[in-house]
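Entry:
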Amino acid sequence: MSYLLGLDVGTTGCKAALFSPDGNVVASCTHEYPLYHPRPGWAEQEPEDWWSGTAGAVRELIGTSGVAPADVAAVGLSGQMHGAVLLDEHMAPVRRAIIWSDGRTTAQCREITRTVGAKRLIELTGNPALEGFTAPKVLWVREHEPESFARARLLLLPKDYVRWRLTGVACQEISDAAGTLLFDVRRGCWSEQLLEELDLDRSLLPEVMGSAEIAGQVTAEAARATGLREGTPVVAGGADNACGAVGTGVVRDGLVMVSIGTSGVVLSHSSEPRIEPRGRVHTFNHSVPGAYYLMGVTQGAGFSLRWLRDVLDVRGQDGREAYELMSEQAAAVSPGSDGLLFLPYLQGERTPHMDAAARGVFFGLSGAHTRAHLIRSVLEGVAFSLRDCFEILRSLGTPITQVRATGGGARSDEWLGIVASVLGVPLHRTTSAEGPAFGAALLAGVGAGLYPSIADACAATIRTTTSVEPDPDARERYERAYALYRELYPALRDSFARASEP
C-alpha cells in the first residue's frame, strides 16, 4: 500500500504526518524548535533548526508508524509564509531567517510604497507593503547588514529551504511566492517591474513551480537523516494557509476556511483574482492551478492564548492539558466576559488595521474579574478579530455557502462556539484534523499520480463531520460587545504609535 507524507514547517515546530490514500491519518508527530526575539517586535529562527526538526520528526514517524520507507509514495511540504532565508554561494544562510511575525520593517514598507506607489503595488501584487512580507525584510538586511546582503545569492522561504535539504533542488512554488511582495499575482510570475524599482537582482529569486509538481527526489544524504527511501518524489508543496485550504477542501467558490492556529485566518477560495482596493485582506495564488484565495489575518490568535497560559502558569493536571482546563474555566463565564474586552494585538495586527505598532489591551478590567474572565476575554477577542476579517470578505460580495474550521483552536468546542456566535454562521469540522500537513500530503498524492487533480483528491478524502452552531442569546451579547471592540483601536491608534517610538 502507498502512503503520503505531509510536512508542515510551522513557527513552533515541524509536524510530520503519514496518510493512506483514502485520507486516514496513520501517524503524526511534531518536533519543536526555538523562536528568537533579539529585540521587542523582532522574530527570527535558524534554518538549520527547521531541518533538524523536520528530519527528527520524519525519523520518529518512520520508526514508530510501521510503514516501510519504500511504501511512502511521495512527500509534500507546507510551511509558514513570508520568512526571508538568504543563502550564500555555498547555500549556507547568511544570517538567521527573519520570519512572518517580525515587525521591524516599517521604514522599508514606507520606502516600497513611496517607490512603487500604493495603488500600483496593490494592483501588481494584490497586497500593500506590510511588515510581515518578505520583500521589506530583504531591504532591511540590505540597509542594516550590508555585509550579509552582499553575500546573499538566493532567497528562499522556510519550507523551500527544507525542500532543498531534502532534494538538493532550490525552487519556490506559487502559493508561497505570492506572499513575498515580489510576485505578480495576476500573471503568476516574478514582477520584473518591482525588482527593477527596488533594485533587486532577478538572480536572487529561484524558479517558481506549481504546488503539486514534483520538484525533486530525496537525496542519499537526506535519506540517511530522515529514514526515507532515496529517490522518493518530493512535490513543491504550498504555503501553510493554501495547504490548510486544500486540507479542509476549500477548493471551490463558496467555501470559506476559519483557522485558529498561532495566527488566525479567514480564507475564501476564488476562481478570479479579486483584490480589495485598500489591501486589508490579502489576495494570493492558490495551490489549485489557476485559482486564488482571499485571506484576512489576525496575528495573535492561538499565540494570545499561549501567552496567557504562560503568564498565568496554567499547567495540565489529572490527565488534562492546560488548554482543556482553560477552556473549562472560560465556559463558567457568561458571554461578553462581564464587560471585559481583549485586543489580541500582541504582535501588531494585519487585518483590518495593518499596524505593526498595535499592542494587546485588556479593556474594562475591574476588581470583579477573575482569571476565568481573562481567559474568556482572550477567546472572545480573537473571535472579534476574526470577524473583522469576515466582514471585509462579506463586503466584497464573497459567496459564502459553508464555513469550515481548522487549527488547534478549532478542537475546543468552547472556543469554536464563541467564534460561531460572533460570526453568526455554523462552523463545520472536517474529517482530518492535521490541517496543512494533510493538504501537503494531498498535493504529494496529485504529484505522484494517486489523484487526477487537487479537486479530485479533496473529493476522495474530505467530508464534513461535526458542526458548531451560533448561540442566539450569546450572539445578541456579542453584537453589543463587538460594537465596543470596534471603537477601541481607532481610539488607541495614536497612543500605540507613540508607545512604539524608541
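The chain has two domains: 3-248+432-465, 302-429+471-499.
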